[in-house]
Amino acid sequence: MLSAIAENLAAIQERIRSACLRVGRDPAGVRLVAVSKTVPAERIREAVAAGVTILGENYVQEARPKMDQLQDLSVSWHFIGHLQSNKARVAVESFDWVHTLDRESLARALNREALKRGKPLSVLIQVNVGEELSKSGLAPEQAPALFRAVAALEGLLVRGLMALPPYFQEPERVRPYFRQLAGILAQLHQVAPHPEVLTELSMGMSDDFEVAIEEGATLVRIGTALFGERPAAK
User: Fold this and answer.
1) Residues with Cβ within 8 Å of residue 28, at least 6 apart in sequence
2) Which is higher by pLDDT, 234 or 8?
3) Is 136 exposed, middle or buried (0-12, 13-18, 19+ CB in 10 A)?
4) Nearest to 164 by CA among 199, 195, 124, 196
5) Alpha helices, DSSP H only, in 54-119?
6) 3-state secondary structure (DSSP) of residue 75
7) What residue ranges define each of the domains in the chain, with the CATH number in brackets?
8) Phi, psi at residue 127, to the nearest 5°?
């Protein structure tokens, strides 16, 4: 008998497959980032046993103890929260990807740490497509300049873009924002020194990942649909 997490994962994978087929995409081109914020290590272990291979964490200080408990697992850790420059060292030590690069000062801090360790870091540039004051990310028109600056740094590998668009109850209303991010990536391709590695779009969450996939998402960040509702903050 499958666990609840295994059942949820199977359902998500089927929804990913169906969304890809609707638009003629290969389902293998979409990867699930299991958002494990507030999820205890034993439940994360259950998800990995069911087939999860990428874990996304929002807070360095929360992630590190879980990493210690799960170091026997073969998984990739992605940082998906707002990152302060003073956490650059521990971020490079702990994570394989950072999805939320949104300023040159952070890029330079990450680059220094990556070069010290001889460990190139895959990064995504976070774009605030909704231009919401409450969210991190740079304005869409600023993306080309930051991309050029980061692409020149030897310790970082820019793999694509990430966005956290405005929330709507109707997923269709989010589609223009996903389409906008894909359009920005296409523009960057024209000036990228290595366009073959600039392929990733981290967009789409539990409520809207199917629409994101239809618009080109390659990384979907899913927590609630996999692990269930998180306890309300006290």
Assistant:
1) none
2) 8
3) middle
4) 124
5) 60-69, 88-94, 104-117
6) coil
7) 4-227 (3.20.20.10)
8) -110, 130
Q: How far is CA 142 from CA 71, 126, 184, 197, in A?
A: 38, 11, 10, 21
**pLDDT for the residue 133:** 85
pLDDT tens digits, 4-24: 999 999 999 999 999 999 999
Is residue 231 over pLDDT 80?
no
Residue with tokens 């990913």: 16
pLDDT given at position 132? 84
How crowded is residue 107: how many other Cβ atoms within 10 Å of its Cβ? 26
d(C-alpha 53, C-alpha 126), whole Å: 22
Give the phi and the psi of residue 183 in degrees, each rounded to 5.
-65, -40
Q: Is residue 72 classed exposed, middle or buried when 0-12, 13-18 and 19+ CB atoms within 10 A define those classes?
A: exposed
Q: What is the pLDDT of residue 229?
A: 84
Is residue 110 scored above 50 in pLDDT? Answer: yes
Q: Which two tokens stand for residue 219?
A: 């990384």
DSSP one-letter code for 231: P
Which residues have a Cβ under 8 Å from the Cβ of 24 and sit 6 or more positions away?
none
User: 79: which 2 tokens?
Assistant: 């940082």
